[in-house]
C-alpha cells in the first residue's frame, strides 16, 4: 500500500517539476516589423532552469543560422542587429522567428520558438503628437487623452510613452501600448504641478516629443478693479 502511495506521489510531482522548467521569448514581438540592420533586444523569461542559451534565426521551418551562443541564461536579453546570424544577414521578408535553446546541466535541453515577425520594411513612417498641444494645461487627478498621428509607411505595432520635465526624463507613463493613436493617461495628484512637461512616444523605428505643456498650474485670476467715479 505504501509503495502504491509513493508511486502515485511520484506520478503527481514529476509533471509539476517538468512544468516549472520553462523558457519563453518575449521579444521579437508577434507580427512586428523590424528594420533590417536596425537593432532590438531579444529578450526571454525562464523558470526552473540554469545554464546557457543559444539563439537561432528561422524563416518558416528553415534554419538560417545561429544568432548567438553560450549566452548566460540569467542575462535575459541579447542586443541584436536585426537580421544578422552566423551565415550572413537575412533578406527582407516575413515569417521569421527566433528559437531559444537552453542547455541546463541538470535538466538537459529546453527548446522554445518565439512568434513570427517581419524584417525589412520598404519605407518607415513618422509620427506626430497631436495632444497635448503647446501651452496646454492638464489638470492633476484627471484623465487626459494622449493622441498622435502617423504618416504613410511601416510602423511599429506597439509604442512606449515617457514623461520629461524640464528636458529630463521623469518616468514611464506606459512601457507598451498599441500604436493606435490614443492613450488615456490618468495624472495622479502625487505627480505634482510643473510648468514645462513633454511627452515622448517611442517605437522601434523612431521617437517623437510633444511641445511643452503645463500640468496642474493654477490659472491666475485677473485682479478685481474697483471702478472710481469722478465726483461732480
Short description:
The protein is mainly beta.
Q: How would you portray this structure in words?
A:
The protein contains one helix and 20 strands. The protein is elongated and about 65 Å long. It has 232 residues and is mostly beta strands. Strands 2, 4, 5, 9, 10 and 11 form a six-stranded mixed beta sheet that branches. The protein has two domains: 21-119, Sandwich (Immunoglobulin-like); 127-215, Distorted Sandwich (Coagulation Factor XIII, Chain A, domain 1). It has one helix at residues 2-19; strands spanning 22-27, 33-34, 39-47, 52-59, 62-72, 77-81, 84-85, 88-89, 93-104, 108-113, 117-119, 127-131, 137-138, 142-150, 158-165, 168-178, 182-187, 194-202, 207-209, 213-215. Residues 6-10 have low confidence and may be disordered.
The CATH topology annotation of the largest domain reads as: Immunoglobulin-like
Major pleated sheet:
6 strands, mixed
Write down the overall geometry. Answer: elongated
| Helix run count | 1
| Percent helix | under 10%
CATH class of the largest domain: Mainly Beta
Named CATH architecture of the largest domain: Sandwich
Number of domains: 2
Give the topology.
Blueprint: H1 2-19, E1 22-27, E2 33-34, E3 39-47, E4 52-59, E5 62-72, E6 77-81, E7 84-85, E8 88-89, E9 93-104, E10 108-113, E11 117-119, E12 127-131, E13 137-138, E14 142-150, E15 158-165, E16 168-178, E17 182-187, E18 194-202, E19 207-209, E20 213-215
What distinguishing features does this structure have?
single chain, 232 residues, mainly beta, Immunoglobulin-like, six-stranded mixed sheet, 1 helix, 20 strands, 8% helix
